[in-house]
Design a protein that fits this description.
The chain is of the alpha/beta class. It has helices at residues 21-33, 52-60, 77-87, 107-116, 138-154, 171-180, 188-199, 220-239; strands spanning 8-14, 39-46, 66-71, 92-96, 120-124, 131-133, 166-170, 203-207, 209-211. It has one domain (8-239): Spore Coat Polysaccharide Biosynthesis Protein SpsA, Chain A (Alpha-Beta Complex).
Length: 245
């Protein structure tokens, strides 16, 4: 496998995901074993203090296309996804969440657009056709809508869900975008899309089936951290501080 260039790289950032990750890896292995294209799976451990790394190591004996990138210190989701994107080998590079909120089989809905010439295809929980089960709470919907309006006004007009953890990039787009990115925390999604726009890459937003986890570890602090990061992205873009811009 490692002598061949995979068609798809699946990148999973993890931090203390020992409970949820095993079922996600089982589902990914089941889905990709049916695919007509080759793939690799990269789990990037962001300083977990539980058994996450050990569990992934055990899975590598069962899944030959699985690779663990282990980091002892916690850096943030943005930093972790960036490492995966830049160390992956695939023609296309998809990052997804460890809770399997969007199953990897939905990459097949992205593939026609990537083949058509889109450089970045992103999953969305808000565009027509998206399905959330169960629906998000009212306060999360209100926070999400308000935050999105702020994000659109500042950096990425026309994109209705910047934060869905299911995004695919062509190899060229991944290398250029994440080679320039600097946001280590939750605002990295918006930064990646803003850079995609700045570099002239074509973006497509498509609906996904989202399995909503009511006990998500992402809380209100992440929401305000994201808005702060968006302000940083706008300022860096305005000042021309990104490499390649």
């Amino acid at each position: 496998m490692w002598g061949m260039k995979p068609f798809l790289s699946v990148i999973i950032p993890v931090h203390n995901e020992a409970k949820r990750l095993p079922l996600t890896l089982v589902d990914i292995d089941r889905q990709l074993s049916r695919a007509e294209y080759s793939s690799e799976i990269l789990v990037i451990n962001d300083g977990s203090t539980d058994a996450t790394a050990a569990i992934v190591e055990r899975f590598t004996r069962l899944m030959p296309d699985l690779r663990l990138l282990n980091h002892a210190e916690n850096h943030g989701k943005g930093w972790t996804v960036r490492q995966g994107m830049l160390q992956a080998h695939g023609n296309f590079r998809l990052f997804m969440d460890a809770d399997n909120a969007v199953s990897v089989d939905q990459f097949n809905n992205m593939l026609p657009f990537l083949k058509e010439g889109y450089d970045v295809v992103i999953g969305s929980r808000t565009v027509k056709g998206a399905k959330l089960a169960p629906p998000q709470s009212l306060w999360r919907r209100l926070l999400g809508k308000g935050g999105n309006l702020f994000i659109q006004a500042l950096v990425v007009p026309g994109i209705w869900d910047t934060q869905c953890g299911f995004k695919a990039f062509s190899e060229e787009a991944a290398r250029k975008i994440f080679g320039a990115a600097v946001i280590d925390q939750w605002g990295f999604d918006t930064e990646a899309l803003a850079l995609a726009r700045r570099f002239g890459f074509k973006i497509k937003e498509i609906p996904v089936r989202w399995a909503n986890h009511p006990y998500s570890a992402v809380g209100g602090r992440a929401y305000f951290s994201t808005l702060r990061d968006v302000w940083r992205v706008w300022r860096r873009l305005a000042r021309g501080e990104y490499n390649g811009t």
